[in-house]
Amino acid sequence: RQLSAAFEIACLHALLRFYKRQGYTLTLENLKANEFRYLTSPSGNPANFSYVTLSGQDGEFEVRQQVRVESHVASDIRFTPDILVLLKDSTIDAATNADFAAGKRKLFSVKSDRVVAAHECKSMNPFPELMVSFVGMLVTAHSWYPNGTEVATASKGHLAPTLFVGGTARALHLKMIAAMEASYRLNIVVGM
Fold first, then answer.
1. pTM (predicted TM-score)
2. Which H or E element spans position 4?
3. Is the pLDDT of residue 147 over 80?
4. Contacts of range 130-133, beta carbons closer than 8 Å, 24 or more positions apart
5. In this structure, which of 6, 42, 58, 121 has its CB flanked by the most CB atoms within 10 Å?
């Protein structure tokens, strides 16, 4: 668990460095005792944790960790990407749901039409099923998919939804990654 959390934090920092290189201004928000508080579990209340605001030529955005997404496909489809880039001031709903924690805790989620890009972090070796499953996240979390223009390749604009993988890929995996990146609007970064 600690390794996964540390890897997710490292991926967050890599994403923030990407945005800084793209010319965005980064602002730390919701600090606690002047310290950044990371959310590395889907069970936390996002209001109790820190996040980063991005300001750029294309507007303002928020980079958050572990915020559940309610899919545009159906409201009963909800899942928690490790890192989200959201439109600024996106509402994170807090609802009581009898099917979640027996109705004793709030179910926090944001609607997928507020999601610019959802990113996933895995501190393991890549394998085909992991990479293919990321396509499901792409389709389910992004109401703009497949025709939106909100994200681009790593050369400009917002980073397309990205699967960050800690382990090293073999030649077969690298060919699969290249084919997936050519076929879908996503990135798979390995060997982190």
1. 0.91
2. helix 2-21
3. no
4. 130/163, 130/165, 131/163, 131/173, 131/176, 131/177, 131/180, 131/188, 132/180
5. 121
